Amino acid sequence: MMGDWIKTRLKNVVLFRELSDQELEAIVKISQVRIYKPRTFVFMQADPLERVFFIQSGTIKIYKTDASGKEQIVSILQTGEMFPHAGFFRRGSYPAHAEVMEEATLISIPIADFEQTLISYPELCIKLFRVMGEKIIDLQNRLEEQILHNTYEQIILLLLRLSRTNAVLQGRHHRLTTHFTNRELANMIGTSRETMSRTLSHLKRKGFIDLDDNGYYLIDAEKLEKEIFYNL
């Protein structure tokens, strides 16, 4: 049954991991499953804010665009994560675009229904606040990187962040689980594609990063951490 499938998948979401079967059933009742193909949009910036999504599989790129069309990538989300995080605390429109990078299966929940569920289960509210707190700290750290570090250091810090959030350990390296173009990496920290390309080539020559046979980045986090330490 679809309800059992959703229930099993929701147990893998950090927000719902410790809920009882009764609490999970309340979430399942208001959930729907949607499948999205690559290069399609879950929603676009300024669309009416109506739903939150939980990723069962696939990769979602969250990014903003300014009046000139310039792209600023906010995050790359994968299995087990939710978006948009601000969905429960604001009204109006989605604050960014959500584009599918790799075919995604999403569990979709109407915000109005989920807010009623939060009222019924206060423990879920506490867990949601913890998740939001982690996201706020991440954004604070990124802001500090922009203010306190030069572009070379920002690129190293970006690679270290991706090694924690979008990678699996493979020997001594962290292997990124998403294909990133140089432009996409550049858009994560607001630099140019050319600067990103030059810096990545430099880091490859120094043996800090590499590409595997399938084009995924291999990151030597230990070496990058030493490099950033010596540049401070």
From TrEMBL:
<protein>
    <submittedName>
        <fullName>CRP/FNR family transcriptional regulator, anaerobic regulatory protein</fullName>
    </submittedName>
</protein>
<dbReference type="GO" id="GO:0003700">
    <property type="term" value="F:DNA-binding transcription factor activity"/>
</dbReference>
<keyword id="KW-0010">Activator</keyword>
<dbReference type="InterPro" id="IPR000595">
    <property type="entry name" value="cNMP-bd_dom"/>
</dbReference>
<dbReference type="Pfam" id="PF00027">
    <property type="entry name" value="cNMP_binding"/>
</dbReference>
<feature type="domain" description="Cyclic nucleotide-binding">
    <location>
        <begin position="15"/>
        <end position="135"/>
    </location>
</feature>
<dbReference type="InterPro" id="IPR012318">
    <property type="entry name" value="HTH_CRP"/>
</dbReference>
<dbReference type="InterPro" id="IPR018490">
    <property type="entry name" value="cNMP-bd_dom_sf"/>
</dbReference>
<dbReference type="InterPro" id="IPR036388">
    <property type="entry name" value="WH-like_DNA-bd_sf"/>
</dbReference>
<keyword id="KW-0804">Transcription</keyword>
<keyword id="KW-0805">Transcription regulation</keyword>
<dbReference type="Pfam" id="PF13545">
    <property type="entry name" value="HTH_Crp_2"/>
</dbReference>
<dbReference type="InterPro" id="IPR050397">
    <property type="entry name" value="Env_Response_Regulators"/>
</dbReference>
<keyword id="KW-0238">DNA-binding</keyword>
<dbReference type="GO" id="GO:0005829">
    <property type="term" value="C:cytosol"/>
</dbReference>
<dbReference type="InterPro" id="IPR014710">
    <property type="entry name" value="RmlC-like_jellyroll"/>
</dbReference>
<feature type="domain" description="HTH crp-type">
    <location>
        <begin position="149"/>
        <end position="222"/>
    </location>
</feature>
<dbReference type="GO" id="GO:0003677">
    <property type="term" value="F:DNA binding"/>
</dbReference>
<dbReference type="InterPro" id="IPR036390">
    <property type="entry name" value="WH_DNA-bd_sf"/>
</dbReference>
